[in-house]
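The freezer alarm interrupted the setup, so I double-checked each line after restarting. Inputs confirmed:
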Amino acid sequence: MPKIFVTRKIPEAGINKLHDAGFEVEMNPVDKVLSKEELLHYLKDGEYDAVLSLLTDKIDADVLKGAGQKCKIFANYAVGFDNVDLIEAKKIGIMITNTPGVVSNTVAEHTFALMLAIAHRVSEGDRFSRAGKYHGWEPMMLLGTDLSGKTLGVIGLGHIGSRVAYYGKKGFDMNVIYYDIKRNNEFEKEIGAIFSETPEDVLKKSDFVSIHVPLMDSTKHLINADRLKMMKRDAYLVNTSRGPIIDEKALADALRNKIIRGAAIDVFEHEPAIEPELMKLENVILTPHIASATEEARDKMAVLAAENIIAALEGKRPPNLVE
Ligand code: NAD
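Predicted 3D structure, all chains:
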């Protein structure tokens, strides 16, 4: 009977799927991230045919080799796969899969939760009320800004970015511009989005900039001090992709010095650490990497990760093979 190791508790839906396929499932017994040593300890006998890993597991050459020759696949329970050494996996011949598509609506919703919250000063207003500072309605109290009619700039128009663009256009009547290394003419026609030739063009023209590119060498610090200075002074930056895409210290400087009006981010450069300078500021919202954290999305991710494992162990091409 094929054996699967799951590096941390995930929704039952995925585990049931693996059981239904006739697999034996063993799980990290403690609900915490395994250190590299702990992960290697579990894998060391090379008894697993597949590993279901999380974005918090660093799947480097040692771990891939440590899984042994029997192991055919690491199914990452995440859309991103920047935690995996893809080159080494290819060399060894271990398949890597991810869980794209099924969380796009959820992450796009969270992106709008952040965008609305920062523009309408929701978190700030909540802190204000709880601090006992609300003494009656005032015409000039906590003024924010509307989304409707504003320009939304999407950087990275993939599964999630295109949903964000769609919600922006259809839900909030925003003008949508975007930059992506691949132009999408069909989507442009469908919702009337306008392609920008450079990320700089998006930064200069947008009232709200939302980042949806994967983390790669080419996207690390895509948003740095120079690029923040290109944004409008009353613009907002939202990031639900990966933390290192933004230079967090530069962002804190830009927010403190009112180079931009506000930011709302779900991911951090050195997760789980958060730049202390950001914590001091009122004009930023910080959520703890929860953009895909709904029951529906997490169930779908668990099922998809299981489906990738089942396909690989049945000798088929997994639906979400990362190449
Ligand atoms: P996707 O692969 O469908 O889309 C990524 C898009 O970025 C593609 O259209 C690609 O062409 C474009 N791109 C790549 N490099 C680029 C560059 N240098 N400049 C401009 N565009 C570039 O991925 P997705 O499903 O939309 O997810 C995007 C990212 O969101 C993931 O890589 C993941 O890291 C992140 N994510 C975060 C959460 C969360 O919980 N916060 C949840 C899911 C996904």
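Quick read of the result. Residues 79-80, 100, 103-104, 107, 155-161, 179-182, 212-215, 218-219, 240-242, 266-267, 289, 291-292 surround nicotinamide-adenine-dinucleotide (CB under 6 Å).
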